[in-house]
Design brief:
The complex is a heterodimer of chains A (113) and B (420).
Chain A (H helix, E strand, L loop, with lengths): L1 E4 L8 E4 L6 E2 L4 H12 L2 E2 L2 E7 L5 E6 L3 E2 L3 H7 L4 E3 L7 E3 L9 E3 L4
Parallel strand pairs in A: 5-8
Antiparallel strand pairs in A: 1-2, 2-3, 4-7, 5-6, 6-10, 9-10
Chain B lengths: L1 E7 L3 H12 L5 E4 L15 E3 L1 H4 L3 E2 H12 L5 E3 L2 E6 L4 E6 L3 E12 L3 E3 L15 E3 H11 L6 E5 L3 H12 L3 E7 L8 H8 L6 E3 L1 E9 L2 E9 L12 E4 L2 E4 L3 E3 L2 H5 L4 E2 L4 E2 L12 E3 L10 H21 L9 E5 L3 E5 L2 E2 L7 E8 L6 E7 L4 E7 L8 E6 H6 L4 E7 L1
Helix pairs in contact in B: 1-3, 1-8, 4-5, 5-6
The chains are: A alpha+beta (113), B alpha/beta (420).
Amino acid sequence: MAEMVCIVCPRGCRLTVDEASGAVTGNSCPRGEAYGRSEILDPRRVYTGTVRINGAALPRCPVKSSAPIKKPLIMDVSRQMDKVTLSSPVKRGDVAIKNVLGTGVDIIVTRDM
Amino acid sequence: MNWELIVIGAGPAGLAAALAAYDKGLRKIAVIERDRYAGGILNQCIHNGFGLHRFKEELTGPEYALRFIDRLKDTTIELICDTMVLHITADRQVHTVSAENGYQVYSADSIFLAMGCRERPRGAISIPGDRPAGVFTAGTAQRYINLEGYMCARRVVILGSGDIGLIMARRLTLEGAKVLCCVEIMPHSSGLARNISQCLKDFDIPLYLNHTVTEVTSANGRVSSVTVSEVDENRAPIPGTQKVFDCDTLLLSVGLIPENELSREAGIEIDPRTNGPVVYENMETSMPGVFAGGNVVHVHDLVDYVSEESARAGEGAAKYVLSGKTASNEVFIPITNGENVSYTVPQRVRPANVEGSIKLFFRVRNKLGASVIKVSDTSGRQLAAFRRVSMSPGEMENIFLPKDVFEKALGSLCVSASEA
């Protein structure tokens, strides 16, 4: 049995997951059940960070991964941000890095700048 | 020009109130913001986890802000940025200054206070040792890194386990810094459990509970080490328990204070429990026609609740302006703290002004297991009760009280919580 705090929402349910069957208890919603199971089988996180931007009111543009990325890859993904410089204007949803590290996930802009 | 509503602050509270007032029929609304753009602190909170309650999806801070900013252009709401409010007066004049327009005085039928809160700085907690560069509040470091693009730390100790400190532990690690530990003087964290998990545990950052910083040393004007000691049950450091961390940065995440210089100067009644204005059921302050919402009233954990509370205040302001009067302040039920409860918002309810029910926010003083929340009046009669699986000071609670509770109440209402 693995015990963990669900990070899906600020409620922070205390989950217990059976490693063998993947059965989750302690969750209050279906999202929690899915989180508990994936945390055992294939833990993933949404990456958030910033990239350089020219011509905007500020020098950094916030970005996120368009889907959760395998947890062990998060530090490597973060290092990719330094390779990109955007030019204003950008809109939320614009792709900053396509298919980052071959994960099939894009790094996308989260603010209009 | 006379405005129907002037909103002070274009963060989540101000934007939600302005839009709600517009939806209720006000057309002459100005939102005054001291920064160059709207969105407030959300712009530097680039992490995700916002909006699950309100939008049923996980947004980053800037995305959550855009949901509101986008709506402004379909309205007549005027956003006045780069402008600082200096004073507000009882006859609802708003004195401002800006580089572009100089000193301006606006008048309004109603005002909404949405100044938010500030972090407690080093001066507010007595840390012994040198006064070098490299001691920042967590939010300052967040602004440097996420907005201004300055990497301001390499080896870091974080004092306090508030949410911004936890979020910055992860952020600094992702940017290549080494976060040595997070130190909390209390036996429990003041941050959300999910942030302990995803910001500290994910990166193997130790959390020392019952510990505090007892020495800061410097070399060449910059932090060179931080000493951490265990504390006893009176929160006093225990000699001989020191651990020394070589580092260049000490981040402080030791609480937030509602920013009420304007409210105090105007003579608005402040609740010493929250450090925010005392508010009625519609978020009106002790000054008729002046409303308040969000972190300027009490520090929230979730922006979703800031938006919801402020929208209620915006509706209250619209009703006040359109009806030309407020409910009489003379007949109200005060709401007081009982056992284990540290404050309630609203603090006063005018039964005549309640439609349906009132959502009452409060915090508990201590961690509680399975508990009962009781609402009783001065005669000791219990008028409502609610159950909870657990409660913690770090997580704001809310209960819905129907109108008849206020109609039945004799004297004041007391909210208490105890383990069942």
